[in-house]
Amino acid sequence: MEATMGQSHGRESIISGPSPFDTLPVDCISSIISFTSPRDACNAASVSKTLESAAKSDSLWEKFLPLEYTSLIPQYPRVFSSKKELYFALCDDPLLIEDGKKSFWLEKASGKRCIMISPKEVSITWGSSPEHWQWISIPESRFEKIAELIDVCWFEIRGGMHTRYLSPGTRYSVYIVFKTKNGCPGLGDLPVDAGVGLVGQESPQKLIYFVGPRGRDRRRDVTRPEARDDGWMEAELGQFYNDSCCDDISLSVGKTNTPDWKSGLIIQGFEFRPAKTR
């Protein structure tokens, strides 16, 4: 068999001959690649024509799709020519599930499940009182109705989700996804308590900003919000490890120990996605 690796220049290697995989049946190669990741499958396609063919096979990409993918297909307005095309649709076009209360998609590089839950799925103190909170519809939201803070003194949100919606053996980060109006008076520049954890275990607590003060008033121990590509802001509430998909997750965010009235926060939802590797 001809060698596959030629001269090495720095960190790059030049392929000087056919891949050793070229002697194997395409189905066998696809099976081998299925034990890697979607990112690795895409990289393998650039090695040789044989690997390219194997990396496009439906049998390979079906391994990267969620088990219930057939129930998700009818929600798309188009027909997919391959399982790979369906996979990338699930990465790029989140679907509403659970009667529109959850948004589901896949992380592109790994195929890990991601979920955003609607604010209708959590408990918001005074959330049913129109003078304190309003439920609004805006085009840029994934959900039909989202929560807008009008005026409250006691700001507190609690909720959670079952880990069966997520990928096992994965560390997740949880984010509140939001926008602010007029600087979010009474709340934007104050550290807000946040926590995430498995029910029955002690949840690590942290502090977040929705806006954050400028200059010397900025605290280093408070997580600042970050802008998203979709035009919203997000702040990480915490992390947890999903071991067996048999647990419940709790989340909380609030500011209850100040007498100031608070307003100007629009909450799209709470997002669960694989934590970034450091």
Automatic annotation (TrEMBL):
<feature type="domain" description="F-box">
    <location>
        <begin position="18"/>
        <end position="64"/>
    </location>
</feature>
<protein>
    <recommendedName>
        <fullName>F-box domain-containing protein</fullName>
    </recommendedName>
</protein>
<dbReference type="InterPro" id="IPR036047">
    <property type="entry name" value="F-box-like_dom_sf"/>
</dbReference>
<dbReference type="InterPro" id="IPR025886">
    <property type="entry name" value="PP2-like"/>
</dbReference>
<dbReference type="Pfam" id="PF12937">
    <property type="entry name" value="F-box-like"/>
</dbReference>
<dbReference type="InterPro" id="IPR001810">
    <property type="entry name" value="F-box_dom"/>
</dbReference>
<dbReference type="Pfam" id="PF14299">
    <property type="entry name" value="PP2"/>
</dbReference>
